[in-house]
């Protein structure tokens, strides 16, 4: 039952991404709110549904976007995997883990996107993509990482309340 | 009395009344100052209250001004679209609002708020009053996705009005437009108008796209290349028109396939 909270959160995130975040450019790069949201969610210790969230978000973004559904689906799943690894290794510094996943995740989704588009025959100059899309995207994702992490941490505490200790 | 009426006491009267006026002025000034001092706190309170009321009114009026400016902007935009529709009666148009952009920065798509329920089909061209912006790529019941001509996967067959030649217009990840396959023997000038040619059946002919920017012509290249300055500001798309009476032609079955 508690997993139902995913429906409004994922829908709202994708709507915000399409209607608002996609209009805020830095050079040609934009932030990836669903990716940052998933990274923050997967980093919460008590959360056990991050994989399902990643799959649902990936499919929804793939439905909205013109890019192949496989890019967000596998990209977001990989980000959850990264977050789970980081959560075990650098759990004492969650913000450091958040920044690391945001950075690596943005690069990873970019690589997936470039590979898919190149396979589809779309010409993509790598220097343009790196300088004008990926790096600005990394910066924008870093900017939204902290507020998104704070929101998702509060949401996780609300959805998975810790048992009271007497 | 007679002396006074005769004006003999005027100087003495002036001195007396002058002194009287001075004394009264002194008292009056002090009283007014004292009254002001005593009533000042009440005035400040009322002034603060009045100020707060006026600030509230100003804020309300400012929001009204912003709303009205938005309405004026939309009205002007709609008027321009109606003018465009009347100037091009050969097409039937369906207006739509842009409600979103593609979540991926690699692609240039927009999402509009009409779909198959409004008779929208895949492949229909989308324009603004200024010129071509793209075509419908995917449709659901109440929304559709439009592939912009700035998308890196977009290709539009165009013609240069002044040079009387045809070329291929391609987009890019940065949203810049470029012309390819311009024959070397054609004299392309900066500012030449770029229009759809209608070749390939993907777009109707003679839709304005933009003007030629810089031209690159090298002797060892097979073709010239040129940048295109679009007439449409793709960062400010709000309301667009879908040409609903244009049926795109699928020529893919006619394209030659490599022999096995």
Query: So how many helices of chain A?
Result: 6
Q: Which term fits the overall shape of chain B?
A: elongated
CA-CA gap between termini of chain A = 27 Å
Helix content of chain B: 25-40%
Largest interface (C-beta under 8 Å):
A-B, 35 and 24 residues
**Oligomeric form:** heterodimer
Q: What is the name of the CATH architecture of the largest domain in chain B?
A: Beta Barrel
Q: What is the topological layout?
A:
The complex is a heterodimer of chains A (166) and B (260).
Chain A (H helix, E strand, L loop, with lengths): L5 H14 L13 H10 L7 H15 L5 H20 L4 H26 L6 H34 L7
Helix pairs in contact in A: 1-3, 2-3, 2-4, 2-5, 2-6, 3-4, 4-5, 5-6
Chain B lengths: L1 H4 L4 H78 L5 E9 L7 E4 L12 E3 L4 E8 L4 E5 L6 E6 L4 E6 L6 E7 L9 E4 L11 E9 L6 E8 L8 E5 L17
Antiparallel strand pairs in B: 1-2, 1-12, 2-5, 3-4, 3-12, 4-5, 6-7, 6-9, 7-8, 8-11, 9-10, 10-11
What does this structure look like?
The complex is a heterodimer of chains A (166) and B (260). With 166 residues, chain A is mainly α. Chain A has one domain: Arp2/3 complex 21 kDa subunit ARPC3 (Orthogonal Bundle). Chain A has helices spanning 6-19, 33-42, 50-64, 70-89, 94-119, 126-159. The two termini of chain A are 27 Å apart. The model of chain A has no long low-confidence stretch (mean pLDDT 87). Chain B has 260 residues and is α+β, with helices and mostly antiparallel strands. Chain B folds into 3 domains: 13-87; 93-148, Rod shape-determining protein MreC, domain 1 (Thrombin, subunit H); 155-234, Beta Barrel (Thrombin, subunit H), CATH 2.40.10.350. Chain B has helices spanning 2-5, 10-87; strands spanning 93-101, 109-112, 125-127, 132-139, 144-148, 155-160, 165-170, 177-183, 193-196, 208-216, 223-230, 239-243. Chain B has a 6-stranded antiparallel β-barrel. In chain B, strands 6-7-8-11-10-9 form a 6-stranded antiparallel β-barrel. Chain B starts with a helix and ends in a 17-residue tail after the last strand. The mean pLDDT of chain B is 84. At the A-B interface, helix 1, helix 5 and helix 6 of A face strand 1 of B.
């Amino acid at each position: 039952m508690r997993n139902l909270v995913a429906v409004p959160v994922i829908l709202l995130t994708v709507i915000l991404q399409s209607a608002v975040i996609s209009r805020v450019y830095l050079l040609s790069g934009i932030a990836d709110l669903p990716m940052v949201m998933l990274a923050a969610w997967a980093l919460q210790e008590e959360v056990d549904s991050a994989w399902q969230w990643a799959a649902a978000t990936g499919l929804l973004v793939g439905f909205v976007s013109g890019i192949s559904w496989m890019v967000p689906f596998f990209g977001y799943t990989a980000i959850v995997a990264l977050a789970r690894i980081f959560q075990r290794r650098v759990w004492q510094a969650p913000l450091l883990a958040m920044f690391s996943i945001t950075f690596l995740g943005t690069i990873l989704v970019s690589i997936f996107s470039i590979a898919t588009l190149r396979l589809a025959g779309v010409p993509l100059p790598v220097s343009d993509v790196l300088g004008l899309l990926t790096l600005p995207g990394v910066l924008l994702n870093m900017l939204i990482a902290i507020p998104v992490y704070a929101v998702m941490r509060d949401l996780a505490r609300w959805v998975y309340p810790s048992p009271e200790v007497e | 009395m007679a002396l006074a009426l005769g004006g003999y006491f005027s100087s003495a009267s002036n001195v007396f009344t002058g002194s009287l006026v001075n004394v009264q002025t002194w008292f009056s000034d002090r009283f007014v100052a004292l009254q002001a001092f005593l009533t000042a706190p009440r005035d400040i309170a009322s002034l603060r209250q009045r100020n707060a009321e006026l600030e509230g009114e100003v804020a309300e009026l400012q929001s009204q001004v912003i709303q009205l400016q938005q309405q004026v902007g939309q009205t002007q935009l709609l008027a321009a679209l109606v003018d465009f529709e009347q100037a091009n009666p050969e097409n039937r148009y369906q207006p739509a609002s842009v409600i979103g952009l593609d979540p991926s920065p690699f692609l240039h798509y927009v999402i509009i708020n009409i779909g198959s329920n409004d008779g929208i089909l895949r492949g229909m061209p989308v324009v603004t009053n200024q010129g071509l912006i793209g075509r419908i790529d995917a449709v659901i019941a109440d929304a559709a996705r439009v592939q912009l001509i700035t998308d890196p996967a977009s290709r539009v067959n165009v013609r240069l009005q002044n040079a009387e030649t045809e070329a291929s217009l391609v987009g890019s990840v940065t949203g810049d437009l470029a012309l390819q396959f311009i024959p070397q023997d054609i004299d392309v000038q900066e500012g030449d108008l770029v229009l759809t040619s209608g070749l390939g059946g993907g777009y109707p002919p003679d839709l304005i796209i933009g003007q030629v920017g810089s031209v690159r012509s090298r002797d060892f290249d097979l073709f010239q290349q040129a940048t295109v300055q679009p007439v449409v500001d793709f960062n400010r798309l709000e309301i667009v028109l879908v040409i609903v009476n244009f049926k795109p032609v699928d020529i893919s079955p006619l394209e030659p396939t490599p022999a096995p």
